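Format notes (please read before filing issues)

Several people have asked whether sequences and structure tokens are stored in separate files. They are not. Every record keeps both together, in the order shown below: the sequence lines, then the token lines. Line labels are part of the format and must not be stripped during preprocessing.
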Amino acid sequence: MEFEFSEQQIEFKNLIHAFAKARIAPFAPLWDETEQFPLETVLELGEMGAFGIIFPESYGGLNLDFTTLCIAIEELARFDSSIAITLSAAVGLGATPIYLFGTDEQKQKYLPDMCAGRSLGAFGLTEPDAGSDASALKTSATFDPSSNTWSLNGSKAFITNSGTSITTVTTVAARVKDGFSAFLVPRGTPGLTVGQAYRKMGWHASDTHPLYLDDVKIGPEGVLGEMGHGLSHFLSVLDNGRIAIAALAVGLAQGCLDEATSYAKSRIAFGGPIGRNQAIAFALSDMAANVEAARLLTYKAAWKKDNGQNYTQAAAIAKLMATQYAVDATRTATQIFGGMGFIEGTTVVRHYRDAKILEIGEGSSEIQRIVIARSLGLPVP
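Then the structure lines:
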């Protein structure tokens, strides 16, 4: 087994780390406070090729592996989860469905700008009454043979990258006569309304809106993938997303470890740095062990995907454990910081608020346990 990144992966890791430290870390507190989507920084990240990491050069991508994408997400999340989820969602949920299931025309229309980071795509699956139970979708698509168009009606909730100035298209899951199908709904399509941005506990610099579809007309060119197979397409994409969220969780937990370790060395109490106290030293030791365990689980899942192996169970395990460790890391870091850990503007406070959603999005921890149980052959419904 190989536990080292390739030279190319290390080079990309260093590139993203340097960018995040210089162009994200100094400004992340302000973005968080003002709930500002950092468009300029996202565009700079696009110029570096981050949004095209896993896609072929024919679409302007870098033609690298999924592991490299996870490396980029981890490095960004060490400093700011909002930027990390913007990249993760844009690649995994925005562009990947088009790449995997789109026609040549659909790929040529959308992927070049997405790979360059000039445009973002969104993924419209979740609804107010359909989250973990994706089969409960109520958004409908009705075909009108006289006009050869589909009419979409319904609403979507918690959609990342759905309202930015560079969002160009949303892939929408809708119920059809024979199951579920996916439709590409371009920005500005009559009947599509982007609702007011959510006020969230965390991810303040990430763009998240509800969407409303009122008799949205989509022609045959807007059908994504095989008719009636939209739900299976979407669920297959979520396996990739779970690994990406695990990578984000690893980065956030590593950021907490970095901050708390530095603080434990510099904070003086009872005549010396608090890190000399066994309680603090052991807490940081446990955090370091958990971060390393989460990292190994995450990159094992990414390795299985890159090598064509079945990775559904590995993705669920990585997502379950990495997100749990991330939430634990924020609590421990906050405790080590003491009173300063309760003051807004402190990095660990932002990490604390950003972490909880990781146990919910891309399939909650409970859903991951169901996936794992099924992989063990248990008769879980």
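For reference, the curators noted about this record: The chain has three domains: 7-120, 121-231, 232-375. The mean pLDDT is 97.
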